[in-house]
Amino acid sequence: MAKATTVREALAKWEEKSGEKASEATAIKLYGQVPSIEKMDASLSTLSKCEKLSLSTNCIEKITNLNGLKNLRILSLGRNNIKALTGLEAVGDTLEELWISYNLIEKLKGIQCMKNLKVLYMSNNLVKEWGEFVRLADLPCLADLVFVGNPLEEKHSADGTWMDEASKRLPNLKKLDGTPVIKQEEDEGDGES
């Protein structure tokens, strides 16, 4: 089996192809490497100007080495083998969008550090309990969530209760699974008939 591509090798390839210097670039695409990237290694810390980093469609198992990415706003890690959301603390103040669909995430511990996260795309993961889902309520800016394809969503969509139950638990949500969340006014029509 071919040896995994390192982030350093992928960055060198990207620089060659794009003609840009990785340490100066604001958007870097390292998705779908052949052979795949398996580790987010320390060479990521050189990307201090990077605002959008794409590492999707690789074989990454752990989120690590984000400490140098002081300007990171969008992190794309879809279609990997990530099992946990730990390792995000380093970008907790800057990250606005996390794209992490098609992974193996069951627990949402670690997400609470994402104080500016507005968009979370995490469809097709393994979250099956409301106890995990409600951790998303700790994200003060979260407005757009895609959660379709998680066992929790599938079960409650089958019952026809998903939109109501999910939006009740995340009252600040504006969009759920691509659908605008319509809020019922609490006092609408009270006592008037």
List its traits.
4 helices, disordered C terminus, eight-stranded mixed beta sheet, single chain, alpha/beta, 193 residues
Structural write-up:
It is a single chain. With 193 residues, the protein is α/β, with parallel strands linked by helices. A hairpin with a 2-residue loop joins β7 (175-176) and β8. Helices cover 17% and strands 11% of the residues. The protein is built from four helices and eight strands, in the order αβββββαβααββ. The protein has helices at residues 7-18, 130-133, 151-159, 162-169; strands at 27-29, 52-54, 74-76, 97-99, 119-121, 144-146, 175-176, 179-180. The longest helix has 12 residues, at 7-18. Strands 1-2-3-4-5-6-7-8 form an eight-stranded mixed sheet, covered by helices on one side. The radius of gyration is 19 Å and the shape is globular.
